[in-house]
Write a structure and sequence with these properties.
The protein contains no helices and 10 strands. By secondary structure, the protein is mainly beta. Strands 2-10-9-4-5-6 form a 6-stranded mixed beta sheet, with no helix packed on it.
């Protein structure tokens, strides 16, 4: 059973930055580099939504709301998925999750990001 563990969330002021990390346990055969991975978020009272994705080889895509502010990447040495979030705004307040773009694995606990104005 794969377990996804997100970390790096916290509180930030508007205009600030945070970097999220995602690691997987329980899956020894394949690294994140084999999957198209993504970050998703769920704001209070809303459904979980796509934020950013990175394909297995190259290429990234972003929701329009975070384009030019967020950067998704992989740390191959640590087999982790990263999300650099800059110029945060209150609208970015949410619980952030990682998963494959096809949502293959069970969802983790997520990491809370709270941005104050």
């Amino acid at each position: 059973q794969v377990q996804l563990v997100e970390s790096g969330g916290g509180m930030a002021q508007a205009g600030g930055s945070l970097r999220l990390s995602c690691a997987a346990s329980g899956y020894v055969l394949t690294s994140f580099s084999s999957f198209a991975m993504g970050w998703f978020r769920q704001a209070p009272g809303k459904e979980r939504a796509f934020v950013a994705g990175i394909l297995s080889a190259t290429g990234t895509n972003y929701d329009d709301s975070v384009k030019d502010r967020f950067t998704i990447s992989r740390d191959y040495s640590k087999n982790t998925l990263l999300l650099q979030m800059n110029n945060l705004g209150p609208e970015d307040t949410a619980v952030y999750y990682c998963n494959t773009l096809s949502e293959m694995f069970p969802w983790g606990q997520g990491t809370q990001v709270t941005v104050s104005s």
